[in-house]
Amino acid sequence: MQDNVQSNFPLSLHSRIFYSPRVSPSMFHSISFVALSLVLSSHAQSPTYSATYLPSNAPYQSEQGQAGYNNCTSGSSQTSECQNAYINTVQDWCIWGPPEPGPNSVIGNTEQIEVAWCMQSGHGTRLIPDGSITGAHVVVTPDYIQITGVGNLTNINIPAGDAGGELDPHGADGNGNPIGGLVFSSAFGALEEIHEWTNFVADEEFCFRACKPAVNAPTMCQHIYDVMGCEWNMPGNYSPGVFEQCLGDSAEPMGVYGTSTFYQGAPVTPPAHPIPSSSSCTFFSTISNGQAALVTSTATTPASTGASKSGSSSGTPKSTGSSAALPTVPAVGYQSLTVIVSTIVVGFSMGIIVTF
Description:
Blueprint: H1 2-8, E1 16-19, H2 25-43, E2 84-89, E3 92-97, H3 107-110, E4 115-118, E5 126-127, E6 133-140, E7 144-151, E8 165-167, E9 182-185, E10 192-193, E11 197-201, E12 205-211, H4 217-220, H5 230-233, E13 243-248, E14 256-257, E15 260-261, E16 278-284, E17 317-320, H6 332-349, E18 352-355
Parallel strand pairs: 2-9, 4-5, 6-13
Antiparallel strand pairs: 1-18, 2-3, 3-4, 6-7, 7-12, 8-11, 9-10, 11-12, 13-16, 14-15, 16-17
């Protein structure tokens, strides 16, 4: 039994395992309950991240290999390399886009170096030129803020005909796309960094979801469905000619259907979840920032510390009704705790005492 336990439950903590037939059932149940409680408690905590920033204290660059920067000053610049995105309201939001124009600037080629293109000056980013966005729909739910819409995104350097791709804080190599990209939002109260987010952008359509910091944020902002596009990942209103901000219900997590989870590449692709209901909408005739297609600037490029044209950003209401904060593998201590308590549970169920 001793050999079987060691082979089935290998421990990298220099553990010693001894067989003991003297563990009473009551002691086993008490210790098992405590151990199991520790496991469940640890798993119920929010994910941990390598750092958390605000725009005011972000470093020059938050990730190794980053092309742009994060201490982005103020104002705006059409040559800014700022990699801070915001999603606050229908008048104040950003999406990621290529830093340079040209046929080779498709999202698939530039995802690691995208810069922030925003609807409002003051963030030190580039501005989305007026008239580029022909429909924008913001919904704030208990779990996330989401914007969906359409427009002529060739004005932010996306080549015509580009079907686009997904940007998220993870990326295939764990560094995020773009590398070092930070996202901030005041949708849930004070301005804060959003650690879990996903943004799809193409030449004529975009969607961006930023999840409220919570234990379910990675699920609500899942990033593994990168070929499924906006309307499958983020069901919502994509109609042109409407600019609105609403409250709404949260959608079902993308890819989750009851007790089953769909994985990209499966033989059968399920339909998108239904569009959740929304209410308390405020409508605007348009959204703008005063930025034409000409290159103008009021922002300064920050100097490394070692390691635009400004305008109003609102339409007229018609009616009312951190290093890049990438999720990290749980800390070694967390892994060790899980191994220890799991081993205790298994050990006592088999009449074994485990010491470390």
